[in-house]
Amino acid sequence: MAHSALSGKSNDKETSSLVVSFGEMLIDFVPTETGVSLAEAPAFKKAPGGAPANVAVGISRLGGSSAFIGKVGADEFGYMLADILKKNDVDTSGMRFDSNARTALAFVTLRADGEREFLFFRNPSADMLLHESELDISLMKQAKILHYGSISLIEEPCRSAHLAALSIAKTSGAILSYDPNLRLALWPSAEAAQKGINSIWDQADIIKISEEEITFLTGGDDPNDDNVVLKKLFHPNLKLLIVTEGSKGCRYYTKEFRGRVAGVKVKPVDTTGAGDAFVSGFLYSIASDHSIIQDEKRLRKALYFANVCGAITVTERGAIPALPTKEDVLQFLLEAATI
C-alpha cells in the first residue's frame, strides 16, 4: 500500500454517507495574466477542472466521503487527473481510461472583472465516450447522494450512461443532486441546451441553479421573481431548489418554506470553482443527514456553510487548488465573528 496514510484516512470517513459525482473531468488552461483575451494571453497554467470532479474533491477536502465516475484519456493528462483525485482521497474505482480519445481541454480566460470565457477542445474527448457498460454499478449503489451536471447529456454514448446512472442511484435510494452548469459553447444550439437540461429536470431531488441559468431556461424571465422560480422550475418531486447569487448569497425553495441566506464578502481573484465549492459544502452537510432539508433552521446553517466554501474559493486561482478544508471554513467563520 503505497498510500497507507491516504488509505488509512479514507477508512475513517463515513462510508455510510458516500457522495458519488458523475460526469466530466478535464484540464483547464488558465492565462497567467488576468483581464486579457485568449489571443492576448502570454502563457497558460494548467489546472484540473470539470464541475463534478471539483465537487468530489471539495467534499473530500471537507472530510466527507466521495467518489468520481467518469472517463478520461489514457494519456498523461488523464493519469494526472486520476492522481489528483487519489491524492485528495476521492475514490477513483469508477474512473475509466480511453486509449482512442484524449482527455478534454478547456482554455479559460479570466476577464478584468474575474468572470470567465471558455474555449473547449473535445471532438470527441474521452469523457463523452463513457458507455453504460463501463459504469461501476456497485459503487453507485453505495451512494447516498449522486451529483451530476448537464454536460454529460450532450452526446452519446455518455448520455445513455448518465441516464442509466440516475436510474441505478434512484432505485438504490440515493438523493439525486443536479447542477445544470450551463456551458452553451458545448451544445449544438441554445434550443438543444434548453431541451437537454430539461430532459432530466423532474428526476432531481435537489437542484442548484444560477440566476443566469434561470433566465436562460425560462426564456428571459426575471430570475429574482419567486413566482417564476416556483411556477416554471419547481417540480412536484423536488425537495429543494437553490438559486445561487454569487457574492449576494443564495435563495432556497422547498414545498414548505423559502428564503434567502446572505453571502460573504471577500475580494475575488478568480470565480472558477465557486459554484462547485458551494455544492460540495452543501452536499457535505446533508450527506449523513438528509433531514436537514426539512428543517429550515438547519438548512439555513448548511447553506451559510456552503456560501463560505464558495467565498473562500474565489480568493485563490483555479478550482481544485482553492477548495477549502473544514479547518479553513471554521477559521473563516471564527475570523468573521470577531470582526
From TrEMBL:
KW Ribosomal protein (keyword) present: no
Family per similarity comment: Belongs to the carbohydrate kinase PfkB family.
Gene Ontology MF, one: fructokinase activity
Keyword Transmembrane: no
Name of the molecule in the record: fructokinase
UniProt pathway annotation: Glycan biosynthesis; starch biosynthesis
EC annotation from Swiss-Prot or TrEMBL: 2.7.1.4
GO BP, one annotated term: fructose metabolic process
Stored PROSITE patterns: PFKB_KINASES_1, PFKB_KINASES_2
Domain of life of the native organism: Eukaryota
Class of this enzyme: transferase
Residue ranges constituting the Carbohydrate kinase PfkB domain according to the UniProt record: 18-325
GO cellular component: cytosol
Keywords from the named record: ATP-binding, Carbohydrate metabolism, Kinase, Nucleotide-binding, Transferase
Residues spanning the membrane: none
Known catalytic reactions: D-fructose + ATP = D-fructose 6-phosphate + ADP + H(+)
Function: May play an important role in maintaining the flux of carbon towards starch formation.
